[in-house]
């Protein structure tokens, strides 16, 4: 089912758009059929690893890049889970096993701001470790209740203070952990502020040591 009459929205990050499409598929707003049949339609023949290789199908990438998502579609998305086990990846590469050539990690989360009714955001992967991820696009997500994020470098974590519905904030990363454990650091002040509002806060490290901040 498609919303062809809606004005299309431009995404800056193709991978994040994939996760939005995955959620719309889960909600039955988009129907693509079985992934093997999907690839066969795009290629005009069954996908053949000997010919097509172990990589993202370029025609599938083009398909999703050109897929129109309108305001009603974006408003329907209440949960976004950036996880390598998402079934959408079989529609990109039928041999998907957690990684494929043609899929790049996210370097920004700007497109999150396109989801006005987002209530739950989680990512266990796909935020590029070397990138400085800004959380500023979260500022206007008035319905966001839960954040669970794993990341390296970051900025604008204070955006979480503008989320009136936030109930749970779970962060995983060495830098954010080191910062939150530093007295007087802006990240510590942000987390303390959230705690004072009744938000359940948990900050843990990946490869350091010490008790979690909660």
Largest beta-sheet characterization: 5 strands, parallel
Give me the number of helical elements: 7
Fraction in beta strands = 5-15%
Shape: globular
Broad structural category: alpha/beta
User: Helix and strand string, N-terminal first?
Assistant: HHHHHEEEEEEHHE
What is the count of distinct domains? 2
Number of strands: 7
- Share of helical residues: 25-40%
Overall mean pLDDT: 93
N→C terminal distance: 44 Å
Poorly predicted runs: 1-5
Strand arrangement in the largest pleated sheet: 1-2-4-6-7
Radius of gyration: 19 Å
Key descriptive features of the protein:
two-stranded parallel sheet; 2 domains; 7 strands; alpha/beta; 7 helices; five-stranded parallel sheet; 214 residues
Short description:
This protein has 214 residues and is α/β, with parallel strands linked by helices. The chain is 28% helix and 13% strand. The strands form 2 sheets. Strands 1-2-4-6-7 form a 5-stranded parallel β-sheet.
Give the topology.
Elements: H1 14-26, H2 35-43, H3 49-52, H4 58-66, H5 71-76, E1 79-82, E2 120-123, E3 133-134, E4 146-150, E5 154-155, E6 168-172, H6 174-180, H7 186-196, E7 200-204
Parallel strand pairs: 1-2, 2-4, 3-5, 4-6, 6-7
What does this structure look like?
The chain has seven helices and seven strands; from the N terminus they run αααααββββββααβ. The protein is α/β, with parallel strands linked by helices and 214 residues long. The longest helix is centred in the N-terminal third of the chain and has 13 residues, at 14-26. Strands 1-2-4-6-7 form a five-stranded parallel beta sheet. It has a two-stranded parallel sheet with strand order 3-5. The protein has helices at 14-26, 35-43, 49-52, 58-66, 71-76, 174-180, 186-196; strands at residues 79-82, 120-123, 133-134, 146-150, 154-155, 168-172, 200-204. The chain has two domains: 1-77 and 84-104, no CATH class; 105-214.
């Amino acid at each position: 089912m498609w919303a062809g009459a809606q004005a299309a929205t431009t995404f800056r990050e193709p991978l994040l758009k994939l996760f939005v499409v995955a959620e719309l598929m889960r909600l039955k707003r988009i129907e693509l059929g079985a992934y093997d049949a999907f690839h066969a339609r795009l290629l005009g023949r069954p996908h053949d690893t000997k010919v097509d290789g172990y990589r993202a199908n370029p025609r599938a990438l083009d398909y999703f890049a050109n897929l129109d998502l309108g305001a009603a579609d974006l408003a329907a998305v209440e949960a976004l889970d950036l996880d390598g086990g998402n079934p959408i990846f079989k529609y990109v590469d039928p041999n998907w096993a957690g990684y494929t050539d043609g899929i790049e990690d996210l370097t920004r989360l700007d497109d999150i701001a396109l989801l006005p009714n987002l209530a739950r955001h989680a990512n266990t992967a796909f935020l590029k470790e070397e990138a400085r991820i800004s959380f500023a696009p979260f500022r206007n997500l008035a319905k966001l209740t839960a954040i669970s994020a794993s990341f390296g470098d970051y900025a604008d974590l204070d955006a979480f203070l503008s989320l009136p519905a936030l109930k749970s904030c779970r962060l995983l990363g060495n830098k954010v952990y080191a910062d939150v454990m530093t007295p007087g650091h802006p990240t510590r002040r942000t987390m303390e502020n959230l705690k004072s509002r009744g938000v359940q806060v948990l900050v843990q490290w990946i490869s350091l040591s010490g008790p979690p901040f909660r």
